[in-house]
Fold:
Amino acid sequence: MKILLVILLTSMLTENFVLVKFMGICPFLGVSKKYDSAIGMGLAVIFVMVCASICTYPVYTFILVPLGIDYMKTVAFILLIATFVQLVEMIIHKKVPALYKSLGVYLPLITTNCAVLGVTILNTDNSYNFLQSIVNALGGGIGFTLALIIFASVRSRIEASNIPKSFAGVPSTLIAAAIVSVSFMGFTSLLA
Amino acid sequence: MDKNSNLYALIKGIVKENPTLVMLLGMCPTLAVTTMASNGIGMGLATSFVLICSNIVISALRRVIPDTVRLPCFIVVITTFVTLTDFLLKAYIPALHSRLGIFLSLIAVNCIILGRAEAYASKNNVFRSALDGLGMGLGFTLALFAMGSIREILGSGAFFGIDLHLPLTFPIFVMPAGGFFTLGILIAILYKFTNKKPPAKVGCAACPIAADCINCAARAIKTTGEEA
Structure:
């Protein structure tokens, strides 16, 4: 139990996927202008990360490792994730149109999100078991959402302020991200 | 310059359409591995190798791959070369392999590579696609080298691991926050000197090929009306 809590807090705060490990920077900077879309994107990422961990674990443990082709994991995982995301998009679109409206539009963005592939590879690199993998993915997803929501509120302040011409747009966003990242450095000693 | 010349295919990626600093693609490795100049060059060259090889193969197969399943096909080609690069680095430069870590595998989801496959290699001949890959790869490597040099000199007072005996260093530059900060300043300086307005959008949304690339954010942005 204790180790699960440690994994959860590590992937959520001390090793935050976006602000410490730099995975999923594109959606972090791209979809963080509004609260609503930040929350929608965050929930979609949590869902896909957890499901991707559930899908990839049996494939890695019961197919790739016994056959001695675990070096094929990148190819196998990326295809699994792409197929899975496509499938979920189709199912949600047909069965739950309301959910599709709030969540589904972010799904295509996620296929090439390195946080999702990253979490599955980290699971195997750290040789987590099934439950630990799920907790790691859950923590990573929550950490991603947390960073996205915090950053969305920081950005709404920047929009209103007066900044030099050459810093307008992307440069000011990146510098704001640096300051938010500094605040996450405070968590480093949390689990020490 | 003639936009249809071979020379243009090569050099456009270095400055004018620099994938990192102008198109703002592949931000994850740009920020993550550039704590040292040598890491930046290593990551840049590894990505360039994958980019050139995948551009050549995808361009050669562009009449064979059916349009509807082209993205899975591209991904398989790209990931194959990523696995190959992973093996080569592990065998010949193990120190670099362990420093780049998970980001070597994550070259597979670098949007520069899929973006070039979709926007260039699937529409142009093999020679042009190879030149395009080389140019884009060089542009990416240069940007990573610049980031790595700045962060290593300011953060740990060294350059390529050689101590410069600086009187003052700022360790924050080798920390994650320093990555965001350095990239922000670098882009601002670039736009100050070129006298252009920096792009307001980041990632796929700002990418000039967004309209062609169905895999990218453009699709989601169109449907939500989100202006990132």
